Amino acid sequence: MKIGVLGVGQIGKSLVLKLSAAGHAVKAANSRGPGTITADTLAHGARAVTATEALTDVDVAILSIPLDRLPALAPLLENLPAGDIVMDTSNYYPQRNGVIGAIEAGQAESLWVVEQLDRPVVKAWNSLGAASLAGKGRPPGSPDRVALPVAADSTRDREVGMALVEDTGFDAIDAGPLAQSWRQQPGAPCYCTDLSRAEMAAALAAADRTRLPRRRDLALAAFMERLSEGGRPDPGYGVRISRALYL
After folding, report:
1. Which of 138, 193, 220, 230 is least enclosed, having the fewest CB within 10 Å?
2. What CATH number has the domain spanning 2-177?
3. 90-143, pLDDT tens digit by residue?
C-alpha cells in the first residue's frame, strides 16, 4: 500500500521503519521539513517528504503527532480523497496536551479527533509504548506476540488498519466502533500492558471508564517521579507500572 506518515517521533519512526520493511511504499514527514528526517528512519526505503506530499497519492495517512496538534492538520486533509484511510496514534494527557473540555466530560478521544479533522479515523498503535513498538514485534504465530486493539466505525477501514498492525509485528484485535475506543485509552487495562491475544478480550471487557483518568494520572506521576530521580527508566518500566495500576 502507499502510506504517508506524519510525525516521526518515537512512534512514527518505528511505524515508518516497520511498514517500509514490510514492503509498503512509505513517505515520512514532520513539522521541520524532510531534510531533518534522519537516514536511519529511511533505512528500509521510505522517502522523506513535506507534509503536503505525504498526503498526496496515498491509500493510508497515519497521524503520529500530539493530540492537541491534530486540529491544525484539518486543512491538509481536505484534499485527501474520501476513500483514503486516516489512522490516529495519539493519546490524551491533559498535563501535556492541555485540558480539553469535551474529553474531560467523557467523549472518547478518537471521536474528538473525528470532529476536529471532519473525517473518520482508525484508532491504532496508541495502546503500547514506544519501546514495545520498536522492540516487541514478532512473526505471526509467535507465542509472545503482543496484541493491539484497532477501532473504527467503518468495517473496511478497521480491516485495513488491522492488516497494517499485523504488518508491524503485532496481533490485531477488532475493538469495534470508535464509541468503544475509550477501552484503549490511557488508564485502561489494555493500555501499555503488552497483553497477548488470549488476554486482550478480558482486558477490553474489564475496562471501567470512570477509573481511567485517575489511573492514567497515577501512572504518569510514577513515571515522572522516576525521571526526576535522574536518568531514564529501563524500557520495561512503563509496562510494569501500567500492569500494576491498570490490570
Report:
1. 230
2. 3.40.50.720
3. 999 999 999 999 999 999 999 999 999 999 999 999 999 999 999 999 999 999
